[in-house]
UniProtKB/TrEMBL annotation:
InterPro entries: Enolase-ppase_E1, HAD-like_sf. Keywords: Amino-acid biosynthesis, Cytoplasm, Hydrolase, Magnesium, Metal-binding, Methionine biosynthesis, Nucleus. Pfam families: Hydrolase. One of its GO terms (molecular function) is magnesium ion binding. GO terms for biological process: L-methionine salvage from methylthioadenosine. This is Enolase-phosphatase 1. It comes from the Eukaryota. SUPFAM superfamilies: HAD-like. The gene is ENOPH1.
Amino acid sequence: MVVLSVPAEVAAILLDVEGTTTPIAFVQDILFPYIKENVKEYLQTHWEEEECQQDVSLLRKQAEEDAHLDGAVPIPGASGSGAQDPQRTIQAVVDNVCWQMSLDRKTTALKQLQGHMWRAAFAAGRMKAEFFADVVPAVRKWREAGMKVYIYSSGSVEAQKLLFGHSTDGDILGVVTCFKTLSYFRGSMATLNKMAHWCISQNLSLS
């Protein structure tokens, strides 16, 4: 296997996850479908837990902000009629999550719930992360050469760490210097592209 040669003056390597370290098929065919297929069961199992209620509260707040959007799915409040019918609220959360995912949204609220669901799945051994065959050898070689390796992705930091901590190659968290995530961005792609380099360099202190 040939590992990409990097000039000696390079101090850091910046990698994305989907399509870079990890096959797109793993993300699209395993990770995301797992959420849609299991979110209702997860909510019913963990509903009384504080972490789950915090996730729901954040999703409810996002739903209120999204009320003006076509197809937006509201989530009943913590008090009032909805509070007396948890199954109704759970179904609303399920519908909201599926609606957001159908639009490929990356809201903080959605990413937080997804991260907690994946954490439970990885801990239970229900899935293992997949990497391209050349990723781990390359990253290890770069680290041995003294380079820093950063992961910068739209996925939450917790989700990124889950992938590297529960992979088919074992726990490889130690090969990554730092994990970063992009905050949910509502502007145009053109504006995002203009901001990207500056934001990344500032966030990683590479400027």
